[in-house]
């Protein structure tokens, strides 16, 4: 809680919308003078209580935007699948996160990652047991709240236990900056990140669906693979009365808004943490295009792209042994069909109007009005449809 006179940290340290909302400054402040607060679009930014602040400068030193942590060298790339089909089914890609998490827990360590809490907010939490780990599996397409997890993870490391900390590239950069030094037993995993949508937009969507169906949502899964992994997976909601909603990303209004890049965090449009060299030990992603690169690794149940950046990352992957199927690939093949690995999303021209009307329009109408695909995408789609009609499919 911030008391007395406070200013936004953006004013204080002059980083403006480059702030990624990682919580490193809040976690590090020895005076508890910094608290994260949502702005009008729902993203968290630090606010500094000037009466408590002693101007020690630690917040600037742990900010990964102002003082970027060092990066590990150019990675080695692999296509990987967990051999356990059930684990892979409950994961977004090839289930590598679940396998690594399982190993850390078996070794008495703790795993940090993103779960949806009881009110379906995306929050970083700690798992010490397999049940907790399952809550972290699967992508949640909304920016998570780090809360006190950086400090919890540091305390566990200092007590000599292993820690796997996972998150977006900026969250891992924030965590490494917060730690300020290497720790034995730490494994940091980031993801290839398209960008993170606003928690307010997700909240508004949940409210819209609950009002529409007249019943509370108990669980949400962003990527159901039942119809196959490559087709683009469905969002799935489970209601309190046992009913289920499942829709393709092309037809669900939340997924459309996310994929049209209208409500990503401002810093995501000029992300400083993309690229091949990263502070993490391992980067995980979907291996889009695997059917062309290593068809033997493609059964449409999900294949992970794994970029290994450090000796700690390499030994963690080696330890998985027979539980992991893997094939080495070239970096070019690895990222050719995954531009978000290295390139930021383009800003959307209607973002301001979208937020202005977020609370006043029905969510589906809002998305229909402001999230139409660009003219170029619509022309490409139409040309594609005509080509498919003119060139008949080969009978299989
Ligand atoms: C917002 C977002 C955007 C993504 N964009 C791309 C992309 O453009 N291209 C691509 O190839 N892959 C992308 N991914 C990553 C991909 O969806 C898988 O998460 C990744 O391949 C790991 O899959 P897995 O099967 O190994 O494990 P899973 O069990 O699916 O992975 C879960 C992991 O993701 C983490 N996670 C889940 N939600 C969040 C969140 N909101 N913030 C931070 N961490 C989270 C968990 O902590 C855990 O470490 C994105 C993920 C997220 C969350």
Largest sheet properties: 8 strands, mixed
Helix content: 25-40%
Q: What is the number of strand segments?
A: 14
Please, how many helices?
A: 16
* H/E series: EHHEEHEHHEEHHEHEHEEEHEHEHEHHHH
* Straight-line distance between termini: 63 Å
Question: Which ions, cofactors or small ligands are bound in this entry?
Answer: flavin-adenine dinucleotide
Spatial order of strands in the largest sheet: 6-5-7-8-12-13-4-14
Strand content: 15-25%
- Regions with little confidence, pLDDT below 50 for 5+ residues: 384-396
Mean pLDDT: 91
Class based on secondary structure composition and strand pairing:
alpha+beta
How many domains? 3
The radius of gyration is 21 Å
Query: Looking at the chains present, what oligomeric state does this protein adopt?
Result: single chain
Molecular shape? globular
How would you portray this structure in words?
With about 400 residues, the protein is an alpha+beta fold. The chain folds into 3 domains: about 5-60, 2-Layer Sandwich (Alpha-Beta Plaits); about 75-195 and about 265-340, no CATH class; about 200-265 and about 350-385, no CATH class. The chain is built from 16 helices and 14 strands. An 8-stranded mixed sheet has the order 6-5-7-8-12-13-4-14, with helices on both faces. Helix 5 (about 95-105) packs antiparallel against helix 6 (about 130-135) and helix 10 packs parallel to helix 15. The radius of gyration is 21 Å and the shape is globular. The model is unreliable at about 385-395 (pLDDT under 50). Flavin-adenine dinucleotide (FAD) binds near residues 91, 94, 95 and 340. Flavin-adenine dinucleotide binds next to helix 5, strand 5, strand 7, strand 8 and strand 12.
